[in-house]
């Protein structure tokens, strides 16, 4: 499962970076599907993934020897928070509503988890805690980076070849209830899509 998580995570990051530089078909769909698969992996299989239990051994009782109930509950909670952050990163990157607030909730939730993992790692020097700390640090850093990136910046990076569309979207962002501005944005987007 660790390899699956790594492949999906790297795939998401690469697709996002490429999306910021090049327009390609189904970019948003690919990023969304991969992010949702990663979020489901965290939310459903976190007890195994974060405790470094192989997928084929998830249902074997002997795989959980030496793992306390509290640690299992902690990894399930950690998986839930990682799932929230993954989806929030998707929302922020796609410039969907409530991306920033969801990302803030996820980032605030992960800080105490990181503190507990650091303390547990110092106490036990367990390989599981070191791997978990690396995972949490990477996701926290990505979330923090996106949280402090303005939606306008993402818009400008993605559509830098279409300044008319950028201006239309920015105007609509200033007054989201204005139907006339929304209509103008739709017309400009149709022109942009026809020009590609």
Topology, element by element:
Layout: H1 2-21, H2 27-49, H3 69-94, H4 99-124, H5 127-147, H6 151-158, H7 163-174, H8 179-195
Helix pairs in contact: 1-2, 2-3, 3-4, 3-5, 4-5, 7-8
Features:
about 200 residues, mainly alpha, about 0% strand, elongated
Please provide a brief summary of the model.
The protein has 196 residues and is mainly alpha-helical.
Question: Can you give a write-up of this model?
Answer:
There is one protein chain. By secondary structure, the protein is an all-alpha fold. 78% of the residues lie in helices and 0% in strands.
User: Count of DSSP E strands?
Assistant: 0
Based on CA atoms alone, the radius of gyration comes out at 20 Å
Helix/strand order: HHHHHHHH
State the helical fraction: over 70%
How does the major sheet shape up?
none
């Amino acid at each position: 499962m660790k390899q699956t998580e790594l492949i999906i995570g790297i795939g998401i990051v690469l697709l996002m970076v490429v999306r910021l530089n090049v327009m390609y078909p189904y970019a948003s769909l690919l990023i969304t599907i991969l992010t949702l698969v990663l979020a489901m992996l965290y939310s459903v299989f976190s007890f195994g993934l974060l405790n470094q239990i192989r997928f084929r051994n998830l249902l074997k009782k002997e795989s959980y020897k030496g793992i306390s109930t509290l640690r299992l509950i902690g990894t399930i909670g950690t998986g839930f928070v990682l799932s929230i952050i993954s989806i929030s990163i998707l929302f922020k990157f796609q410039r969907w509503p409530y991306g920033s607030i969801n990302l803030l909730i996820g980032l605030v939730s992960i800080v105490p988890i990181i503190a507990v993992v650091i303390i547990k790692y110092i106490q036990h020097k367990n390989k599981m805690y070191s791997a978990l700390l690396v995972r949490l640090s990477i996701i926290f850093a990505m979330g923090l980076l996106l949280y402090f990136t303005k939606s306008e910046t993402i818009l400008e990076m993605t559509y830098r070849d279409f300044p008319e569309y950028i201006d239309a979207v920015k105007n609509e962002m200033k007054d989201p209830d204005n139907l006339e501005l929304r209509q103008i944005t739709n017309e400009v987007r149709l022109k942009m899509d026809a020009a590609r």
